[in-house]
Each structure stands twice: as structure tokens, then as C-alpha cells.
Amino acid sequence: MEYIYVEWIHNFIDDPVILISEIDENRFEKRKIEIYKNGKIGFAYNNVKVMGTRLSTEPMSSLNDISSDSQFSPKVITKDVFEKYWNENVVPLI
Question: Pfam families this protein is in (predicted)?
Fold first, then answer.
């Protein structure tokens, strides 16, 4: 698994500003958290979709490809960091 944290720099009110994903060996998202400017949290896993957050049906681009677009600032995070975000933001809601 790979874990990525992407800051999305934009001025759109209805879109998240942070995207945090767990990606499998084939680059498909397994779990995802989206954080909005107003503090709302969206998430997705398996067939669960909350706040419009969905798992991509296409393999995730590489970090280099994502970072080639200046509106995105991606970085790899550890599993422990991902689990901390998941446990603090998603687990209380499920």
C-alpha cells in the first residue's frame, strides 16, 4: 500500500482542499478522506460514500504526475499517519 496526502490549492467553495488516500499495489484507491475549508469531512471506502467523496475508478496517477499540476501539492505519508487521520476523522462517524 501507498499513502498520499495532497493539498489542492483553489478557491472553489464546494471542493475539498485536502485529499488523503490509501492506494493499493495496482494504484487503486482503497480508502479516501477529503477535508473542506469549512472543516467538513468526506470519506469513502468499499461501497461507502460520504459527502460526495468517491473512490476513483481509475488507477491513481504517480506523485510526479500529480505534482506537475501547480494546483496540487502531494506528498507520501506513512500508514501510521494515514490511520491517524482515518481514526480521528472517519471512525467516529461510522
Answer: DUF6881
Range of the domain at 60: 2-93
Number of domains in the chain: 1
Burial 47-70 (b: 16+ CB within 10 A, else e): eeebeebebeeeebeeeeebeeee
pLDDT digit string, tens, across residues 30-48: 999 999 999 899 999 999 9
Query: Taking the CB of residue 90, how many other CB atoms lie within 10 A of it?
Result: 19
pTM of the model: 0.91
Q: Quick check: 52 and 12 in contact, CB under 8 A?
A: no
